[in-house]
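Protocol step 4 of 5: obtain the predicted structure for the target chain.
Materials: sequence only (see below). No template structures provided, no constraints applied. The aim of this step is simply to have a reference model before the mutagenesis design in step 5. Sequence pasted as it appears in the construct record:
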Amino acid sequence: MAKLSHSDDHETVIKKYSELIEKNNPDKFRIRTSLPGGEGLEIADMIPDIVLLDKDSEALIAIEAETVSSVGSDESVERWKAIAGAVKEFQILLPKGTQARANRICKKLGIKVRFQEY
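Step 4 output (structure tokens):
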């Protein structure tokens, strides 16, 4: 798997990160993605970028992947609010250098989240 890069587009970030999760946790999760052919899973009227399911098909973790240009956009923040309130664990995958901004937004809105950086 190629490393994630700031210059990767949204679909590439989703693809690379879901491949990394699968490689490091081959028997722990079933992975659903919002990519074409990825069998996205609807949660709170949204389809998160990546959903990790347990063996009983229960959604454990929803992950939204962001790019430099999407962090904190109105569309992203609306997605964060909706998805975070409907899952056990919510994560946002962020480009390095953007976590402080995302953290301020999430704290202000009361969004419980775990950040991952690339």
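Step 4 remarks: The chain has a mean pLDDT of 92. The first helix runs from residue 10 to 24.
Proceed to step 5.
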